[in-house]
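Dear colleagues,

As part of the handover before I leave the project, I'm documenting each prediction I ran so the next person doesn't have to rerun anything. This entry is a single chain, and its sequence is reproduced below.
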Amino acid sequence: MAEQHKTRITVDIYGQQYSIVGTESSSHIRLVASIVDDKMREISSKNPTLDVTKLAVLTAVNAVHEYIKLKEEYDRLLQQMKKREKDE
């Protein structure tokens, strides 16, 4: 099995430096970090008394919620496509 090239990049999320290693491109990793940072700042602006741990957990909960909603929509569209193919 071929080993995938791993990218190591340092990103800033909510004022903290994180070294992230992954098989995605550095631009993809930066994009993910930027979205997490933006979401944390958005939640923090609405809840300024949250400590960083609670803020991180709420950010994760929001991200998973958005993922589930997108997955449900994807599955629904996939079912529609399958139904149309079957009806043709």
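The longest strand covers residues 7-13. Residues 68 and 74 are 10 Å apart (CA to CA).

All the best with the project,
I.
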